[in-house]
Amino acid sequence: MFSGEAGGATANVDGGKRLSRLAVKPWRLLGFGYYQAWIYLAVLSTVLFTDPDFFSNHLQFTRQYFSLSVAVCLFCLIFVSQKLDILSKRHYLLVAAASLTAMGTVLISLPLQDPDLHFVVVVVGMTMTSIGNAFLIVTWGALWSRMDTDRMGLHLVVSNAFAGCLYLVVTLLPSFIAVMLTAALPLCSAFTLLASEDEPLRQQEDTAAKPKRLLWKAIAAMAVIPFVFGIARAFSSPVEAADFNGLQHMIVLGMTVFATAVALFVTLAPKQRIVIRLYRFVVPLMAAGFIALPFIPNAYRWMAFSAIMCGFYSFEGLVWLLQPEYVFRTKTSTIKVFGWGRCLFHFFGFAGATFGFYVIDQGMALSSIPVPICLALVLALIVLSTYVFTEHDLRLFIAKPKPAYESDDAHVYRAMSAKYGLSGREGEILAMLGKGRSAPFIADSLFISKGTVKTHTRHIYDKMGVHSKQELLDLIEGESRGFR
Predict the structure, then answer these.
(1) What is the overall mean pLDDT for the chain?
(2) Eight-class DSSP state of 173
């Protein structure tokens, strides 16, 4: 029988070994960056469009269709998930979704002579990539809903900088090679995701759901920020393909520099959680970009767009960090939370870009950016961060359970897992079984199938020498007195 100190030491040693194993696999931190780089290359470059005339004629449509089609595919995925347990087979579906995105990417890039046929093929290719991206998004969400928040934050800030670097490299390559590498990026993201199953886990204690007002405040932020960015995205879209390529290249270059600086500060600054540090960059960067946008010379306007883009993608990372918190604390389905969250994100980005393109069509934003619009956007950002979703609200949203609760329960299950040689996933299930959770509840909470839960439960019984749930509960009650 272990004492409390011995159990804690065992848990610490086990946790230290686990983190040391993770430390030698930094390539995992790049996994989401492959997906982001694909987005940059598909939306912020002409890599996939070998015909400059086709791109110039359909610039607004292609950018808008991608945002809207991803939102529609996510909505359909939510509907399907209510009928089928699709995440239980996510390993197979993830590879299929990444492959579908890769095939759609190649389809978009096909050089066809018939303009009408070319347009149809591009629409089909973009639809395929949207379907694949929708499933890739929610599968990353399934991992992040289990992953430690600060570790997840590290994934996101590193991926931001890596995606920009990857974009800059791919756009310098010959067209055929660039297309093939772009098509391979979703597969790289999927396989990295599959290899990241043993990342550090969140605490599995039951905690009270967050007040609904915090949820509505977060939703307001998820509506305003993408809308504002959508307007900037439209303003940074000149009609000529050659101008588009040059401007976007400089924008992403500046954004990558900003993102690298943010990543270094967020990971190295002491005594603050990564989520809080990241939030402090969002509004200042976007506001500074919009303030400078109407007044900065055209030759340097890319710097303002870079600041806006970095602020937006920092906020996007923040949204990714908040959604797992909501999944964990409310026991809501991952697909519903991440699906609706991304639907909202893409829809308001689409709405903002539609407004921005309308302004351009009126001839108001080609030579000079409208000052009133930029000032209104800056005011909206300031009101949002000061009165709607503040840093204090964010702290409440991500507040960790009380240490006393953690030491009372989680400490016991970690020590028991170490004593009986349970794996990390078996330890999770042991803790939930000890709290009287049913197999369906455990399957839904951990995003695995009921059959997988039963298999892990059988292994737990074998390792702990029990034959029923009641025997397991009796053993936990008896052993816990020695571990406390």
Answers:
(1) 78
(2) S
